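Q: Joint fold for the lines below.
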Amino acid sequence: MSTNNIHAFIKNGNDAVIERIHALVARLVVNRKAPLSLATDVNLNEVIQAASYLKPGSYVPMTPGKINHVLISMFSKFTMCVKALIVKVRAMYMPVGYDELVDEYVGSSCGWLVVCHDGWDSMIKQFFGISVYWIDLQSWIQYKLALGLAVPDGHNAQASNDAAMAVLKRYGIRRSDIVLSINDTTNTSLTTNRLIVGTDGTCNMHLANLACNHATGKRKRTVNKEIVDSFEECEDLRLAVRRMIEYVWNKKAKSRKINYEKRNEQIGYNVIKVGIDNDTRISGYTRMYQQRYGASGHCTSTLLTGSRWCPTPTNYQMNVGSPWLRSRPSYDQFAPYHSRHRSTRDWLLALAGPILLKPRLPLGK
Amino acid sequence: MTYSVVNIVLSYRSGEQSDEEDGYSGDGRWDGKTQWDHLPKVKVRAEQLGVIGSKLRDRIQKELDSYFPFPSDQQLVAMICDPVMLTLALPWLCAAGYKDNVDNAKELFKSALVDEATRSFRPPEPDAMCNVPLDDDDIDVQVCDDDDVFGMVNVGSPSQDIESRASAALNTATPSDLANEAFKEWILLKVDWLAWLLNEQKLDEIDKSKVRSSNWIYVSEVIDVSQWWHKNDVHHRLAERIAAQHLGAPDSNGLQERVFLVYKHIDNALRQNLGNAKFEILLILAFNKAFIKDMESKDLFTVDNLIASLKSATDATEAAANIIKYFDLDGDVEDDETDEGMDIVAMLKSAVCDIQQQHDANGSAIAQKRARNE
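A: Joint structure:
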C-alpha cells in the first residue's frame, strides 16, 4: 500500500469516526431532551478531543458517585483558589504588621472587599446568595465572584448576617476585609448591612426603582392610613403601556409563543417571558436614564461615579450583563431577548428557537 | 383618558431597506419578519402627554432629589481616583457650579490618604535612626567620640550612602507629610490621553477631535482606567490602594441578581430532587465558569498541558519523560506508594526500553543499508 493510500485510508477512517461521534451526540441530545446547543458546546468538544487519546474499548463509564466526586473536587479546588487569592490580596492591602484590632478600636476600616447579598424565594427552594467584588492590585483585574448560597434560619437580619458570614468564612474572609455591603432597600437588608460592615449600603438601582415607583404612583405613601401621593392618571398610562406589550406578545406572536412554550416544556427549559421586565431591570433602566439626566446638567451620584464601575448603568451592560456572564456561551443565547436594537425578526426567531426556523406563514394582523 | 395601540399613526419611518425585504407593507400590517427599525413609531414628548407628562416629570425630579440628594463620600472619592475625571472633568464641574462637591471630594481623598499613610506607616527602627545624621557637623560630633564603636561603624560619608540619606528622609517624614506629598502628586497629574489611547490601548478608531478638545464624557467611555492604573501604579502607591478600594465598589447588587438568573435556569421542574448542597455547587461552578477556566489555565497539572507536552515531544522517549514528570513519577518505584503508580512507572520504563531498542535496531539497520550501498 502506498503512502498516499495510507493517508487516504486514515482520512476516510477519521471521517467515519467523526460522523459516528456526530451521530452519537445527536442521539444524546435527542434522547436526553437537551438543548441543541449542547452539540456545539466547547466543553463537549473538549471531552471528545480528550477521549481520542484513549485506548479503544478502555473507557470505564461514569457513575453518579464519580460525578459527585468530581463536582466536589472542582468546588473544593475553586474554594481553595479563592481562599489563596483572598490571602494574596489581603497582603497587598494590609500593611506589614497591621493589627485589625487597632482599626476596630479607632473606628476606621482597612477593607477592600465589597459584598453583595440578596434573598431568593422560589416555589420550592429559598436561598440567601452572596457574591463579592474586589480589585487585585497586582494585575488591576476586578474580580466578581458568586461565593455561595446559604439557607438562613429565618428572614430576619441576624439570621441573614449569620448566613452571610458563614459563607464568607468558608473562603477565609474576615469581617475586617469588608469595606461595603450592598443589598436592596428593605429594612431587613439595611439592618443586615449594618450588622455585616457597620454602615448602610443600599443598591442604587433599587433606590432608583423606589423613586420611579413613587413618582409613577405605583407605590403610595400613607399618613395616618391615608394615601397622600396618589397619581391615578399615571397608573392608567402605565397599564396602557402594559397592555401594548401584552398585545405585541400575545396577539402579534401568538403561534410562535405557543410553540416556543411547548418546545421549552418538552426539553425542560423555562419559558423566558419577554413581557414586562421585572422591577430590578426597570430600576436599571431608570438608573440609566438618571445618568443621562445627570449628564445633562445635574450633578447626580451616577454622573460622578463613572459608568465603567457601575454594573448596569448603560444599555449594553444592562442587557448583556457582567463580563463573566458575557463570556459564557450557554447564556449568550438569551442576549437577543433583551436587546432593543435587534430586528423584530431576530427577536422572534431567537425566541422561537432553532426548531421553529422552518418557513412559516407571516403573522398577519 | 384611554389609550389604544390599534390606531397607531404612521408618521415616522426610516431605514434604507425596501418594504418587500423587511416584510413591512406600509399599511400598518407587520409580522415577525419586519425589522424593528422599520416599524411605525411615534415619538411622544413629555409635553404631548399633557398634564400627566409635566406632573410626572416634576414627581420624578422630586423623588430623585429625595433619594439622591448628593453624591456619597465613596462616590466622590471614586471620582477623584478616576484619572479621566481628575484631569478633564474637574475643571468642567467647577465651571458648572459644582465646586463644593469637587472641594469636598478633594478633602475626602486627602483624609483617606492620611488614613492610609498612618495605617501603613512604620516607625523607624533604632538602627535606621543611626544612619540619619549625614550632615558634616553631625559626623564630626560622632567621630570625636572615640569610645562610641557603634557610632563609628554607623558613620559614613554622604557620597557613599545615598540610600541611607533617602531612607533617613523617609524615616523623618510623618504620615501626614507622606500623604500631602502623595496628594500633591496626584492632584497635579497630567496625562496625554490621545497618546495613551493610540500607544497603550492601541485604539485606532477614536474620535481624535473629541479627545483633543478634552470631551471628558467621550474620553471616559474609551479609556480603560484599570489598564491605566496597572501601568502607572508604581508612581502613586499610596493613592493606588484608595483607588482600588473605591473604584471597585459597584453601584448596585446587580451581580447577585445575575446569580439568581442562573439560579432560575438550574431550578427547573425536572430537577427538583437536587439537594441544597449539590444545587449550590452546580450554581457556583456554572456562574464562575470563566474564573474557573482561567484558574485551570494557570494550573500546570491540567490534561490540556499534558496533551500539549505529548504533542510537542519529538520522540517516544521524550513523551514518556513528559508523562513521568506530569504524574510526578520520578521513576523510583519504591517511593511510589500506589499500585497504579508502580504499574505506570514499570510500564513506561519497559516501553521506553522497547522503543529505544527498536530505535537502535532501526538505526543499525539503516547504517548497514548505507554501508551496503556504499
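Q: Anything notable?
A: Chain A is about 55% helix and 10% strand. The mean pLDDT of chain A is 69.
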